[in-house]
Amino acid sequence: QVQLVESGGGLVQAGGSLRLSCAAPERTFSNYAMGWFRQAPGKEREFVASITRSGEFAYYADSVKGRFTISRDNAKDTGYLHMNSLKPEDTAVYYCAVRHIFVGLTASEYTDWGQGTQVTVSS
User: Fold this and answer.
1) Fewer C-beta within 10 Å: the chain N or C terminus?
2) Burial, 119: exposed, middle or buried (Cβ in 10 Å; 0-12, 13-18, 19+)?
3) How far is CA 110 from the centre of its chain?
4) pLDDT tens figures, 26-79
5) Max alpha carbon distance in the chain (Å)?
6) Which pLDDT score, from 0 to 100, does residue 26 have?
């Protein structure tokens, strides 16, 4: 099991930016693809972005494409979600997750999850 610790959430005005971090203090972090998901009140958890083990390939939900960037630093065992041009509809609890070897686009494909960090975007 991979322990994940998210940070960086908070309250921001529409149009603002935040950077979420996902720390995974495991020597084998580079063996795991990583994804970010979010869940708004009363809604199902949805895919936001994912990245391959090396960081070479990234995938995004249409709703965040062009505004969010997923990245990782395997030397620091940390992944990131850079969020720009935030909108009120981006308000949700954001979760990072990892999956051994292969990248995925759905929550059910990921085996280890962080505790979540709240992002609130005011209009």
Assistant:
1) N
2) buried
3) 12
4) 668 899 999 999 999 999 999 999 999 999 999 999 999 999 999 999 999 999
5) 41
6) 67
